[in-house]
Each structure stands twice: as C-alpha cells, then as structure tokens.
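To assess whether the prediction recovers the assembly geometry, we first specified each molecular entity separately, as shown.
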Amino acid sequence: NAGVMQNPRHLVRRRGQEARLRCSPMKGHSHVYWYRQLPEEGLKFMVYLQKENIIDESGMPKERFSAEFPKEGPSILRIQQVVRGDSAAYFCASSPERRGETQYFGPGTRLLVL
Amino acid sequence: DAKTTQPPSMDCAEGRAANLPCNHSTISGNEYVYWYRQIHSQGPQYIIHGLKNNETNEMASLIITEDRKSSTLILPHATLRDTAVYYCIVARQGAQKLVFGQGTRLTINP
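The predicted structure of the complete assembly is given in tokenized form:
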C-alpha cells in the first residue's frame, strides 16, 4: 500500500513564475492537508481539502496561493508569481474518510525560488 | 488547541531508552496527545497518540500523567536511525489542522 506521494520532490523556479505541487493521498484517503515548512522553522498548516471542497484555508496566504482537490486526480497546490520568500518545503498529508483518523505525511516538495 | 512545551534538544546513547517529555498544562478533556517525528529532510512520521491511558505500539510507548498535564514518549532501545526532531501535539481526535511547535531535536550517539 503506497503512502502519500508528492511530486516533484524538488522544484526550482525563478521569481515571477508559477509553481504547481501535486499530492496523491494514500489509497482510501479522501482528506488532504497541506503544510509549509520554512527553513529552520516548524510546519505550519495551510489548507484542508476534501474531494472537490476546500474545508479550511485559514493558513493560506491571501494572495497568489490556491489549492484544489478534484474528483479525479491529485490535489494541487498552486503558487503564482513566486517570490524568494516562498522557498520552503511543502508537505501534504492525508487521512481516511472516517472522522478521527490520523494524518499521514508525504515526503514533501522542496521549492527553491531563485 | 492547547500549547505544548518541549526541551529544544536531548541526547541519548544508542541502545538505551530515550525519554522525551512534553508539558501540556492547558489540555482540554477532549484533546489527545499526538507524537510525530521528522527525520532530516523527510516528511513527518506519525508515532503514537493517546487520550489518558498509556499506549504502546511497535515504535514507542506513551505515558500520560493522571492529570494529563504532561506526557513522556519512550523509545525503548534507541538506534542511530531514531535521530530526529520529535513533535508533541495536542489536538482533538481527527483535528483538521495539526499545530507543530519547535519540537525536541533528539540525537542518538553511538
């Protein structure tokens, strides 16, 4: 049973470009969470999604960031017009449909903005 | 969610038990204690969680005090691969967001 998969594992972008980060949850999981870890800092919650719905986006920056989890396919975290401060590790976690289940994390995508 | 306090760093000799403390004096009755760890450059790994009873699994044991204001994660026979940052998190079961503090950087020494 494959775990949470994220790709790409490393992404380099120049300032002003767009970054798209993908997350495939564990089989049987329909809840997806995105977290960001800035250099030398702890993980910070960004957004929680279920299929086709954003449930909680209280941790998302107000501009340039968006997330989706379509009916088919992986969850996408999209960052438009990236800036150097967006350089970080972005982790996705998933949990099953049943309430009360633990979140399991993927290996992360390391974004470097030049 | 309640706040947790952990020592910033700890050392332990390989083969010995590693005991990682966590204070959560403002924990509510319906909040669980979760432990995750993050090995360098990897995603956080779930270890164990509990409400008020002690818990044990193949990775670790969790001891929660009777007043639930503190807990200890025990790695019974630490190996070099247990070197990681360990996060103690207090949250309702199935919480939508986990609040990660700075954690404890555990170094296992040969």
